[in-house]
Amino acid sequence: MSLAMVPLGRTGTTVSELAFGTWRFGRQNDDGEVEVGRDRAHELLDAYAAAGGNFIDTADMYGDGASETYIGEWLETRDREDFVVASKVFWPTREDANGRGLNRKHLRRQMDRILDRLDTDYVDLLYIHRWDDETPVEEFMRTLDGFVRDGKVNYLGTSTLEPNAWKVVKANELADKRGYEPFTIAQPRYNAVNREIEGNYLDMCADYDIGVVPWSPLAGGFLTGKYARDERPPADSRAANDQRFADSYLTSSNFDALDVVEEVAEAVGASPAQVSLAWLMHHPQVTAPIIGARTVDQLGENVVAADIDLTSEQFKRISTAKRHLTP
């Protein structure tokens, strides 16, 4: 199979229907072990490209820069123009007073470092990783627009601003007034149990024709079906070692939604994870969910979601299993 190509919002660029997230590249766990080292990272990128994938997602702080470095090394063996590469900026990568946020000093320094690590002249998409209340919108939008004008960035996006739709509106209204490049892509958390963006946020994306590229499509592993209602989580699972995660996800309403996902999965002969991804891919406002993997086998299992055809009734069942009610 080969992943289909879909429009990246209103940019005119096309991307594969599943993006590949590289937050595990170079990341050290609590024991100091690297989750995905260089060799495996390149194997995963090879497998993703072989499946027809072209949309690679990273950030300046993933693996303290190692993720971008691994990707840059891999791109040396490929035609850079075949891929749409996205990165993000906001979080501190050094200890100094201006080493975080969206101030001009930090943005310019990080932009140069991102391009250096990726060994490329430009990134296709640059997200702000968070909103910065300490930097005026005019300041960071003008700086970001400068990156586009200088050819360092093609498009701009926001990450993890949900449910604050007004912030994107404020920035894009200013961009329209000043002639700056607007935000054209949003990267919110969205899956069958995290539904906060439904309502105002998705409405805003529709009004401004903003593409939606969701992260955490499997709710941190909850939607894989690894957890069971009224049972202790597996000893090596995230829920067993992260109480905040357990409190957030191991809830009655989430298990109700998971029950529906599992019923649909059984009906179509797929895994709960594959059906959860397929549900997002069937959503009319979703551009491309971001999948991640530690192994090539895991990646392959996720990619199979592109072959799953949900009926309108199955899509509706999952959509209504847990709904976010906007106040």
Structure description:
- It is built from twelve helices and ten strands.
- The strands form two sheets. It has an eight-stranded parallel β-sheet, covered by helices on one side. It has a two-stranded antiparallel ribbon with strand order 1-2.
- The longest helix is centred in the C-terminal third of the chain and has 17 residues, at 252-268.
- The protein has helices at residues 38-50, 66-75, 104-118, 137-149, 165-178, 200-207, 238-241, 243-249, 252-268, 272-282, 296-303, 312-321; strands spanning 5-7, 14-16, 19-21, 55-57, 84-89, 123-128, 153-159, 183-187, 211-212, 290-291.
- The protein has a domain at 5-221 and 285-295: TIM Barrel (Alpha-Beta Barrel), CATH 3.20.20.100.
- With 327 residues, the chain is of the alpha/beta class.
- The model has no long low-confidence stretch (mean pLDDT 95).
Write the layout of secondary structure elements.
Blueprint: E1 5-7, E2 14-16, E3 19-21, H1 38-50, E4 55-57, H2 66-75, E5 84-89, H3 104-118, E6 123-128, H4 137-149, E7 153-159, H5 165-178, E8 183-187, H6 200-207, E9 211-212, H7 238-241, H8 243-249, H9 252-268, H10 272-282, E10 290-291, H11 296-303, H12 312-321
Parallel strand pairs: 3-4, 3-10, 4-5, 5-6, 6-7, 7-8, 8-9
Antiparallel strand pairs: 1-2
Helix pairs in contact: 1-2, 2-3, 3-4, 4-5, 5-6, 9-10, 9-12
